[in-house]
Amino acid sequence: MDALHGSLVSRLPLPRVAIVIPARMHSTRLAGKMLLRETGKSLIQHTHEAAMRSERADAVIVATDHEAIAAEVTRFGGRVILTSPDHPSGADRVAEVARQLPQYEVFVNLQGDEPEIEPACLDQVVAVLTQDTSTPMATLATPLLDQERLQDQSNVKVVFDASGRALYFSRSPIPFVRDPEALSAALSIDSPRFFHHLGIYAYRRDFLLQMAQLPPSPLEQTEKLEQLRVLEAGQIIRVGVTTHAAAGIDTPADYAAFVRRQARVQAA
């Protein structure tokens, strides 16, 4: 971005931002996880409270396909919108909400199973999106320094160019390290080559609505990664790098570890 362009962008009024939390009842690996409450609060309440701490959020909305989740959000005082149960991805669910809320210019997609997301990450992904008016969508990544997590297909990896433009997302380790002796250097914090994708996104509203009109793409269906629909359509996803690495809750073991961490926080 040149100096004049940057100066003009900095003078623009801040767009109104809505954080939308897609929350499904049915999960393959941890059924009903949004309503688990061994910490004294439901998982969806933890995520909602984290989102509410974002300095850039003008609204926080839970988007769900299930009455029980809607009732829980209402119980703790959150805002909820019931959506279709037929959406193929969280982005499509967020788009349904965006169609109903034209007063917001930016929508952040925060998965309901991210209770430990740092509010600063939500602010950062909005900043990455809005620092350049040509960027329609943004996300975050953090250096991946552990070989076991590198091989774990539940940890999505991303590669991006020098400007932060995403080149590809995959469940496989990318980039491929041809020389085995170079692997340790690639996993070093000094010059990381691997980046773990954090599953939060910021979209400009018009782009989100256009994206939702596209059918699921071949690579999206192959990897089961909704962001590949955008890359296959030739669009830009800008990636910001953060040192925060929140853990999503996908399995009973993930949830048990989260409960233990919460117990330590409450005891401190």
Automatic annotation (TrEMBL):
Protein name in UniProt: 3-deoxy-manno-octulosonate cytidylyltransferase
Report the InterPro entries cross-referenced here: Cytidylyl_trans, KdsB, Nucleotide-diphossugar_trans
Q: What class of enzyme is it?
A: transferase
Keywords per UniProt: Cytoplasm, Lipopolysaccharide biosynthesis, Nucleotidyltransferase, Transferase
Which Enzyme Commission numbers does its entry carry?
2.7.7.38
Please give the organism. Answer: Botrimarina hoheduenensis
Q: Which reaction(s) does its UniProt entry say it catalyses?
A: 3-deoxy-alpha-D-manno-oct-2-ulosonate + CTP = CMP-3-deoxy-beta-D-manno-octulosonate + diphosphate
Query: What GO biological process, any one, is recorded here?
Result: lipopolysaccharide biosynthetic process
Pathway it works in:
Nucleotide-sugar biosynthesis; CMP-3-deoxy-D-manno-octulosonate biosynthesis; CMP-3-deoxy-D-manno-octulosonate from 3-deoxy-D-manno-octulosonate and CTP: step 1/1
Gene assigned in the entry: kpsU
**What function does this protein fulfil?**
Activates KDO (a required 8-carbon sugar) for incorporation into bacterial lipopolysaccharide in Gram-negative bacteria.
Q: Name one GO cellular component term.
A: cytosol
Predominant localisation class: cytoplasm
Q: Which family does it belong to?
A: Belongs to the KdsB family.
| Gene Ontology terms, MF aspect | 3-deoxy-manno-octulosonate cytidylyltransferase activity
Subcellular localization: Cytoplasm; Membrane
Source taxonomy lineage? Bacteria, Pseudomonadati, Planctomycetota, Planctomycetia, Pirellulales
